[in-house]
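Incident log, structure service

09:12 report received: a user says their structure output differs between two submissions of the same chain.
09:20 pulled the input from the user's history:
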Amino acid sequence: MSSSGTSYFVYIVASPSRTIYIGITNDLVRRVHEHQIKEIPGFTATYHVNRLVRFEEFADPATAISREKQLKGWRREKKIRLIESMNPNWNDLSLAWDDEVRKKPGSLGSARDDREEETTD
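09:34 re-ran on a clean worker, output below:
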């Protein structure tokens, strides 16, 4: 993850039953934590979508937004293939973050996206 400047992340979170949500943020640690504690009412809180299964990092917000829109336009099968190309067991990637990353304010940037919307699968 970028050590200088702001990074933007397109991420996919999933429920244990593999319901998925695609979002964008510039603070991945904070945003995943919000999903995990169901801080924002909506689709992900209702359907327990809180496990980070994939993310991509971008330096440019326009590129990240374009990628988010692209992924949201894909059929569910293609999204699943993308996830499983790097994470075949749908492991929660946030579990690999150490305590330093979790505790450091703004460790991956500051807030952006915090919209809750259902992804069309």
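09:41 both user submissions now match this output. Likely a transient worker issue. Closing.
09:42 reviewer note: Helices lie at 28-36, 43-46, 61-73, 76-86, 99-103. Strands lie at 8-14, 20-25, 51-58.
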